[in-house]
Amino acid sequence: MRSEVSVRLAGGQELRFDLEDAAPMPQEQARSWLDTQFVQLECEPLRATGKVLLADKLIAIARAAGPELLADPQWFARFARAASAALAKPVVRLDLDQLTVSY
Fold first, then answer.
1. Which of 13, 25, 55, 72 could be a cystine partner for 101, CB 3.0 to 4.6 Å?
2. CA angle (83, 89, 95) in 5-degree steps
3. Are 76 and 4 in contact (CB under 8 A)?
4. Bridge partners of 8?
């Protein structure tokens, strides 16, 4: 079974991380890492209510990280492992233009 995380950036550029050989991240550790990144990258909630759904958090983090941080292999590997673990899905696709997350 295929296991990967992909992020589609503006202009159609797509970054992929294959999780087949990556060590799984525990779900609580994944959520904690994502929370830390959300704060460190000074992300803003996508919804006017201020409620931050997990999918919204992934989009906000990826947008704030931008192409530079997403191109860092170590950071992107952690992000991919955390996204997959937090959502409990082997395949995760983020589209930053459409602001969507699919499994």
1. 55
2. 55
3. no
4. 14, 95
Domain membership of residue 43 as a residue range: 4-102
What are the tens digits of pLDDT across the range 9-46?
A: 988 899 999 999 888 899 999 999 999 999 999 998 87
For residue 77, give the amino acid letter.
A
The string of DSSP letters for 30-90 reads: HHHHHHHHHHHTT---SSTT----HHHHHHHHHHHHHHHHHT-HHHHHHHHHHHHHHHT-S
- Round to the nearest angstrom and report the end-to-end CA distance of the chain: 13
pTM of the predicted model over 0.85: yes
CB 46 within 8 A of CB 59: yes
Report the number of distinct structural domains present in the chain.
Answer: 1
